[in-house]
TrEMBL record:
It is found in: Cell membrane; Cytoplasm, Cell cortex; Cytoplasm, Cytoskeleton; Cytoplasmic vesicle. Residues 480-490 have a biased composition (Basic and acidic residues). Residues 59-321 form the F-BAR domain. This is Formin-binding protein 1-like. Residues 527-536 have a biased composition (Acidic residues). It comes from Chelydra serpentina (Snapping turtle). Keywords: Autophagy, Cell membrane, Coiled coil, Cytoplasm, Cytoplasmic vesicle, Cytoskeleton, Endocytosis, Lipid-binding, Membrane, SH3 domain. It is a peripheral membrane protein. GO terms for molecular function: lipid binding. Residues 538-599 form the SH3 domain. It comes from the Eukaryota.
Length: 605
């Protein structure tokens, strides 16, 4: 829209303001007086004002809030503060997610097993399920970290960048508004100064007119005084007319600038502020959505983690765990048989012919009852607490079943190593053939040391495998024979004879009874009497020590290389044989350390 047209100016002085103009008329006798056209009207409404009115119906800040610059300044600042407050909220939520993920990972690390060897690996389904749950929980913690990272990148980082841009844009728009207001104030000051100057000149013209009229009516006044007053009146009147025209021009200019200010400049600035604030609102809406999307994106993976935990719970098998317990602790021993009836009255009614053995021989084989009772306690470790001794190479310190499993595991490991060494040997041979055919590729002799080492390793592994397979065959044979021997002893012990061993092995040799004459009963508590024999066991053979044995563990018997001992109990498949010295001291010795010779009658039992 164009500025309003210039209006005809009144001759009389008037009082103007930036909104309205009041009129003061000259007296009718004032020379040069022209007709006063009346007060200057404000510029008519243009098409722009109608458009602004229509825009006001559409909630335009420029039309509805044209005089609310300070409030808009406060509102836009509040909007940025609110955006930064939400950004702070997102930051704290990110810290919570990060701390939560860190605590979950520490919890998983705390309860994860510290595996030092394969033997300590979990085998029970309940343990495996718990470790699977820990793995799923660790993955869940990773998803919480993903949520924190997504929020930090998509929401918090975007909010901080957008807040900085908003501050810059707001500052620019407010500066433009202040400049426009300052320019309008400057125009008003110019108009006001011209108005005051015009008003002052009008007063001077009125004074000159009064002076001229007074001298003109005074008969005593000279013609020169009258003429001088008339000239002064014309001068003041001319100056008033010039100031009037200047004031009218400044007024028209101010009205045009004011119209432009309130209908063009300010609406445009407020429009930019409104658009800026609306974009801020839209950005907040997008960040709210991104805040939720960051959580929603990981829900499928979190659901899979939870499903994994449920599957881990369903994988628990109590039957399998029970079987693992059996496999882990099964010794392979047979339960102890019934204790035989021991008839002590047979010594009372023994005839003279029954004691045909000479006294010196009996004294030579006489056993100290205290020593026998004390050493007999050692036999209980086979069915109770085992002695804590060093692990032997053939695992003879273990029960038969556990020994068989250990030997089988070692054989499997040795076979894997053998296969590895064999593959390496084949590769070296092929490489050597290539070097022989193409000497430029390498020296065949450089592979000979490595090939010799590999062949040595293969021979060593084969020997180890053969040795362990022999031990395994021995264990499996003894375990298989033990059942037959137990069945036979269960039948024989029903015969009420005094020549029955505690383990159910039967003999009909009277000489063996005389070798172990009964001794006086020792007084022990009820628990010890339940498991200990009052009489020494009869010898069923003899053995010779091939290797020395220290016998430091409880229940064992030390022996020197070449020493001859009596065998009072065979090896039951556990790798130990019970022996006795001539002085009556008893204990267990490793079967692999001795050469056993059993009497014929004992072998048949």
């Amino acid at each position: 829209s164009q500025p309003p047209p210039r209006l005809p100016l009144p001759l009389s002085p008037a009082r103007w303001s930036h909104r309205r103009l009041t009129r003061r008329s000259y007296p009718s006798s004032c020379p040069g007086r022209r007709r006063d056209p009346g007060p200057v009207q404000p510029p008519p409404r243009t098409r722009f004002s109608s458009a602004c009115a229509a825009r006001g119906a559409a909630m335009s800040w420029g039309a509805e809030l044209w005089d609310q610059f300070d409030n808009l300044d406060k509102h836009t600042q509040w909007g940025i503060d609110f955006l930064e407050r939400y950004a702070k909220f997102v930051k704290e939520r990110i810290e919570i997610e990060q701390n939560y993920a860190k605590q979950l990972r520490n919890l998983v690390k705390k309860y994860c097993p510290k595996r030092s060897s394969k033997d300590e690996e979990p085998r029970f389904t309940s343990c495996l399920a718990f470790f699977n749950i820990l793995n799923e929980l660790n993955d869940y913690a990773g998803q919480r970290e993903v949520v924190a990272e997504e929020m930090g990148h998509r929401v918090y980082g975007e909010l901080m960048r957008y807040s900085h841009d908003l501050k810059t844009e707001r500052k620019m728009h407010l500066q433009e508004g202040r400049k426009a207001q300052q320019y309008l104030d400057m125009c008003w000051k110019q108009m006001d100064n011209s108005k005051k100057k015009f008003e002052r000149e009008c007063r001077e013209a009125e004074k000159a007119q009064q002076s001229y009229e007074r001298l003109d009516n005074d008969t005593n006044a000279t013609k020169a005084d009258v003429e001088k007053a008339k000239q002064q009146l014309n001068l003041r009147t001319h100056m008033a007319d010039e100031n009037k025209n200047e004031y009218a021009a400044q007024l028209q200019n101010f009205n045009g600038e004011q119209h432009k200010h309130y209908y063009i400049v300010i609406p445009q600035i407020y429009k930019h502020l409104q658009e800026m604030d609306e974009r801020r609102t839209i950005k907040l809406s997008e960040c709210y959505k991104g805040f939720a999307d960051s959580e929603r994106k990981v829900i499928p993976i979190i659901s899979k983690c939870l499903e994994g935990m449920i599957l881990a719970a369903k994988s628990v098998d109590e039957r399998r765990d029970s079987q693992i317990v059996i496999d882990s602790f099964k010794s392979g021993f047979e339960p102890p048989g019934d204790f035989p009836f021991e008839d002590y009255s047979q010594h009372i009614y023994r005839t003279v012919s029954d004691g045909t053995i000479s006294t010196p021989k009996q004294e030579g084989l006489k056993i100290d009852s205290k020593t026998t009772v004390g050493k007999a306690k050692g036999k209980l470790w086979l069915f109770g607490k085992k002695p804590k001794g060093p692990a032997l190479e053939d695992f003879s310190h273990l029960p038969p079943e556990q020994r068989r499993k250990k030997l089988q595991q070692r054989i499997d490991e040795l076979n894997r190593e053998l296969q590895k060494e064999t593959d390496q040997k084949d590769a070296l041979i092929k490489m050597k053939d290539v070097y022989e055919k193409n000497p430029q590729m390498g020296d065949p002799g450089s592979l000979q040391p490595k090939l010799a080492e590999t062949m040595s390793n293969i021979d060593r592994l084969r020997m180890e495998i053969h040795k362990n397979e022999a031990w395994l065959s021995e264990v499996e044979g003894k375990v298989a024979a033990r059942g037959d021997r137990r069945h036979s002893s269960d039948i024989n012990h029903l015969v009420t004879q005094g020549r029955e061993s505690p383990e159910g092995s039967y003999t009909d040799d009277t000489n063996q009874e005389i070798r172990g004459p009964p001794q006086q009963h020792a007084h022990h508590n009820e628990f010890e009497d339940e498991f200990e024999d009052d009489d020494p066991l009869p010898a069923i053979g003899h053995c010779k020590a091939i290797y020395p044995f220290d016998g430091h563990n409880e229940g064992t018997l030390a022996m020197k290389e070449g020493e001859v001992l009596y065998v009072i109990e065979e090896d039951k498949g556990d790798g130990w044989t019970r022996a006795r010295r001539q002085n009556g001291e008893e204990g267990y010795v490793p079967t692999s350390y001795i050469d056993v010779t059993l009497e014929k009658n004992s072998k048949g039992s």
